[in-house]
């Protein structure tokens, strides 16, 4: 190789951070895909080839929040979308995004969004038409202030 | 001043051989140019039949980037945050999806009906995002 850049093999072998990043991204993608299923840290840790304790720690170091918090924001983002774009009632949406109890859903929604699900539905208008992947990323409520 | 097209776009990859395996071997793109310029390997691919729109598969590193910056790029790339994002179209989203799943491609989003068509998401081996859509004509896109 004529350039000074390390090869992929060198990157992966010498810079475990990159391998770790990519594994955490794979696990985060899995959460995005299966957001309505119960959080399965054991399965995600297996996907990322690390222990459960190591998984939570490393995920947090990589993306700035725990897997649990990430999944909550993902679910609330989907709930926000359903509240705006569908006629389904709040209980139905709560179950559809993976919450088992309406109480937990409403509390989490209020904590993250700042108002109740039904209040949010009343106060916001429908989203404009852009590729859904952007809607999903950019309308996900922030953990970061 | 009138611009007429996008002729080339660039994404970062960690390894160009690995990128070829993925973009040509799995996605079915064609190698447009693979040339050792001495200071870099100029590697571009294109969708079959669309040689006028190339994707440059560039490896971050010196001398174009200092080692520390290159390391930051690799860090962001593998976190899925380097900004590389390709939007491709297909005649049959479900068939293309099935083909890619059979080849072991990482899926981020399964095929779904949207106002603009049927599309799904995948990731390349390095962390770049790719979206593949069977699009409706734009005039039919529902207005939000």
Task: Tell me briefly what this model is.
Chain A has 145 residues and is mainly α. Chain A contains nine helices and no strands.
Molecular structure report:
- The complex is a heterodimer of chains A (145) and B (144).
- Chain A has 145 residues and is mainly alpha-helical.
- Chain A folds into 2 domains: 9-64; 69-138, Arc Repressor Mutant, subunit A (Orthogonal Bundle), CATH 1.10.10.60.
- In chain A, 66% of the residues lie in helices and 0% in strands.
- Chain A has 9 helices and no strands.
- Chain A has helices at residues 8-14, 16-33, 41-47, 52-63, 67-85, 90-96, 102-113, 117-123, 132-138.
- In chain A, helix 3 packs across helix 4.
- The N and C termini of chain A lie far apart (45 Å).
- The mean pLDDT of chain A is 86.
- Chain B has 3 helices and 8 strands.
- Chain B has a 4-stranded mixed sheet.
- The relative contact order of chain B is 0.17.
Low-confidence stretches of chain B: none
Structural class of chain B: alpha/beta
- Total domain units of chain B: 1
CATH class of chain B: Alpha Beta
Share in β-strands of chain B: 35-45%
Tell how many strands the DSSP assignment of chain A holds: 0
Please give the CATH architecture of chain B: Roll
Set down the secondary structure blueprint:
The complex is a heterodimer of chains A (145) and B (144).
Chain A: H1 8-14, H2 16-33, H3 41-47, H4 52-63, H5 67-85, H6 90-96, H7 102-113, H8 117-123, H9 132-138
Helix pairs in contact in A: 1-2, 3-4, 5-8
Chain B: E1 8-12, H1 16-26, E2 30-36, E3 41-46, E4 54-58, H2 67-78, E5 85-89, H3 93-102, E6 106-114, E7 117-123, E8 129-135
